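Practice problem 4.
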């Protein structure tokens, strides 16, 4: 409900949660929530998680959890889009508010007239009942389709926001990368939530996108290639690179060696000879984590491992460049921890290496 003067106006439910359980705040815990253990006093059921209402010439939206827009969740798929959608709705004013009432009244009159005709017509209308039922169903379908089309035309997707920040797109159609999109309980050895979130620390805006949308961004990241690219997609990627784009390919953690090399061969690069080693950090010292690494062949060396092999190399393609980092396990949540982990010197070295790889894209942007 939304209070309006001395009265109350009912809002429309926008998002309804199913099977939600409530927990009381508990300030004795770090997260302020009570222990999530079986409890017969918990409340379960439907919960309105977002509501909207119009008040006079204005609009109001209420949302139940600001946590989804904290820095560690803001750019997880669905969160940013929800916020933009809310702001887009708030930035409009209602018009033709009388139309629903007119349509409802017209429908009621037509139904009442049909009822009177059926009473007078008797058996004649009874024989037409199947045809009338079919016509009614077609009318309902056309009404729903018309309303959906009108809504789509009226509420179009907001245009892409242009800013000075670096937009980093993680391609989702051909890769494997776990993010907390539907659940926060992920396999930390395959998840990259912390790596994804920390991009904000170098002025970047991470996002997950299809290949076509990703190629509109400053940096494109391919984490663990798991699906073949078509010839047309290769052509799109090459055009992106030649026009000044930056492509970061991460391999070495649940990746397919065959598919990775099939992709990299198109750019004169390859990965080979997996070994267990540690990565040499930006300070010239080994990062104290032993992980699976691959040697990268065909580009200019950027990062080495403790076996003195190139594990990251870049190659210029037109005005842009592709960089292959073949030790992606280093950036998994299993190694980097969570977004609330207090980093020690080892983690800071890993963070520094991530920032350097992402800032390669920023340097390319400045050189244009």
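Answer key:
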């Amino acid at each position: 409900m939304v209070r309006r003067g001395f009265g109350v106006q009912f809002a429309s439910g926008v998002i309804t949660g199913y099977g939600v359980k409530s927990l009381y705040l508990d300030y004795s815990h770090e997260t302020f929530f009570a222990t999530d253990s079986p409890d017969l006093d918990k409340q379960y059921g439907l919960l309105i998680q977002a509501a909207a209402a119009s008040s006079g010439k204005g609009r109001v939206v209420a949302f139940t959890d600001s946590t989804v827009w904290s820095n560690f969740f803001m750019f997880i798929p669905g969160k940013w889009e929800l916020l933009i959608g809310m702001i887009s709705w708030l930035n409009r004013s209602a018009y033709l508010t009388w139309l629903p009432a007119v349509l409802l009244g017209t429908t009621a009159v037509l139904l009442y007239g049909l009822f009177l005709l059926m009473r007078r017509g008797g058996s004649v209308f009874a024989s037409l009942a199947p045809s009338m039922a079919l016509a009614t169903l077609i009318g309902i379908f056309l009404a729903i389709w018309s309303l959906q089309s009108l809504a789509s035309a009226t509420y179009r997707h907001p245009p892409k926001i242009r800013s000075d920040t670096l937009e980093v797109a993680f391609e989702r159609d051909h890769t494997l990368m776990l993010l907390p999109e539907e659940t926060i309980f992920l396999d930390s050895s395959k998840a990259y939530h912390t790596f994804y979130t920390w991009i904000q620390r170098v002025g970047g805006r991470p996002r997950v996108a299809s290949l076509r949308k990703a190629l509109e961004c400053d940096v494109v990241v391919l984490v663990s290639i798991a699906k073949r690219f078509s010839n047309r997609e290769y052509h799109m990627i090459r055009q992106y690179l030649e026009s000044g784009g930056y492509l970061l390919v991460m391999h070495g953690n649940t990746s397919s060696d065959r598919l990775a090399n099939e992709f990299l061969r198109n750019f004169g690069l390859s990965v080979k000879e997996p070994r267990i080693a540690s990565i040499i950090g930006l300070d010239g010292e080994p990062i104290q984590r032993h992980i699976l690494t691959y040697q990268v062949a065909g580009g200019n060396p950027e990062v080495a491992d403790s076996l003195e092999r190139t594990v990251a190399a870049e190659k210029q393609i037109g005005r842009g460049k592709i960089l292959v980092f073949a030790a992606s396990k280093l950036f998994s949540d299993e190694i980097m921890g969570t977004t609330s982990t207090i980093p020690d010197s080892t983690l800071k070295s890993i963070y520094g290496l991530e920032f350097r790889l992402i800032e390669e894209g920023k340097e390319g942007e400045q050189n244009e």
